[in-house]
Amino acid sequence: MVSIASADGPLVSDREHYLAKVAAVGPLITQSLDAIERDRRLPAALLDAMHNAGLFRMLLPKEFGGGQLKPSDFSRVIEEVAKYDASVAWVTCQGNGCSQVAAFMNPDDAKRMWNDDKRAVLAWGPGKSTAQKVDGGYIVNTHTRFASGCRHATWLGTHATLVDGNGEPLPDADGNKQVRTMLMPKDDVEMEDIWNVMGLRGTAS
What we know:
By secondary structure, this protein is α/β, with parallel strands linked by helices. The protein has helices at about 15-30, 35-40, 45-50, 70-80, 85-100, 105-115, and strands spanning about 5, 10-15, 120-125, 125-135, 135-145, 155-165, 180-185. The strands form two sheets. Strands 3, 4, 5, 6 and 7 form a five-stranded mixed sheet that branches. The longest helix is centred in the first third of the chain and has 18 residues, at about 15-30. The chain is globular, with a radius of gyration of 19 Å.
């Protein structure tokens, strides 16, 4: 079991470390319940506290500044968050799950996303996406839906089909369409607010 040095000196397990972080943030979650339902997002003060506690980086690989928790430990911590509020637990779980993509990325890009920005959060959602290769990268067109936690994210992701200048899919050597995973700064994306629902309003899905 991985152990982390606490502020008082003795070693605690990684699970105990994050459970203590949840316990510290828990009262603020409780105080924020009405605001979460009303505004359909986590209040700024709560979001700050969760970032400071590292609760969006529990599954992020350690080489990029994350906790790299075992799935069983992570599940237990999310369960504890859910005791305070389901929307907060959902957003925390989704943000952590998406951060695991760092392990499959070019290390320099992953470091730029997560090491250089300690508040980085990636949100993902299904939708039709295309990508056209241009000098210096790709132009991505997408209409993504149900991106849980998108209001709290700094990056958004999508799976895009490579297309030519006419929008037609570009086949690979075997004649199959090519799909690439695209990550983009949220500031480059236009958000359409359609999430008016009865429950889990704070997920801003």
